[in-house]
Amino acid sequence: MAHITASVYTSHVPAIGAALDLGKTAEPYWQPVFAGYEPSKQWMREHTPDVVLLVYNDHATAFSLDFIPTFAIGTAASYQPADEGWGPRPVPVVQGHQALAAHIAQSVIQQDFDLTIVNKMDVDHGLTVPLSLMCGPKDPVREAWPCPVIPIAVNVVQYPVPSGARCFALGQAIRRAVESYDQPLNVHIWGTGGMSHQLQGPRAGLINREFDNRFMDLLIENPQAAARIPHIDYVREAGSEGIELVMWLIARGAMSDVARGAMSDVARGAMSDVARGATADVAAGSRPDVVHRFYHVPASNTAVGHLVLASR
């Protein structure tokens, strides 16, 4: 079977991508941000997965107000860096993993989640900045990211947005899907976005260090409690864009220490015998190890949070 062996959590601030692309990483303002990711970059080099499932939100690039999927999965062979108004970022094209993406789509949809299947889309900073932070700047010799990536896009831009509990349950469903795949793949799942920030209105520039760090504490020690945080608390405590943190809950819900909720009888009955056996509900495993934790203010007008959890 394939296995999810680690989860990565990180902000995806667009200005971080600009700082990387313009060679500003050593400037006094930016140096502390990038230094905070050095341990994770080294860990990534030593634990490169076969595939990354990257949960992010599109910023009106692939999607628009004309159509707004709550949850979408990319099933394409590759994804071009998007032009967000200043030209595409000078980063490698993202290579997909079509077979695993199609399997996840079928499995998760049969577990009663309505995923939108996207066969063609460009990916913006929400996806490429985390890759840059974890995998380093573009190597002129290596014209590719170190592994294929499956984009999982979540609507946290236009209300109504999914609840933390729904996102957490989606992570559990994704784990069941991965573990029913019949190839021995090492899979990472990344939750991106956040932390506290607000881009407009009288509270523009809001940063809440206490909320951010408490959220990371809960993510490590009591993720079920983090999944119960209501939307209004994100908005009140972490700003209007702090709602992006629900995407971290998808990655956390996919870790092996979380007791996996039972599928509905209808969903289980619709699966093949092989898939049904591979997705049986089992007891939770051990809490994952904290490989690295980092928090920094400021980076543009956003608090940067970062966490790497690895299964034992």
DSSP strand content: 15-25%
CATH architecture: 3-Layer(aba) Sandwich
Tally of helical segments? 12
Main sheet characteristics: 8 strands, mixed
Structural class: alpha/beta
What is the CATH topology classification name? Protocatechuate 4,5-dioxygenase, Chain B
Shape: globular
Q: Between the first and last Cα atoms, what is the distance in angstroms?
A: 17 Å
CATH superfamily: LigB-like
- Indicate the radius of gyration in whole angstroms: 18 Å
Quaternary form: single chain
Low-confidence stretches: 262-267, 274-283
H and E string: EHHHEEEEHEHEHEHHHHHHEE
Strand order of the largest sheet: 6-3-7-2-8-1-10-9
CATH class descriptor: Alpha Beta
Give the domain tally: 1
Helix percent band: 25-40%
Explain this structure.
By secondary structure, this protein is of the alpha/beta class. The protein has a single domain, classed as 3-Layer(aba) Sandwich (Protocatechuate 4,5-dioxygenase, Chain B). 35% of the residues lie in helices and 19% in strands. The protein contains twelve helices and ten strands. Strands 6-3-7-2-8-1-10-9 form an eight-stranded mixed sheet, sandwiched between helices. The chain has a two-stranded antiparallel sheet with strand order 4-5. It is globular. About 5% of the residues have low confidence.
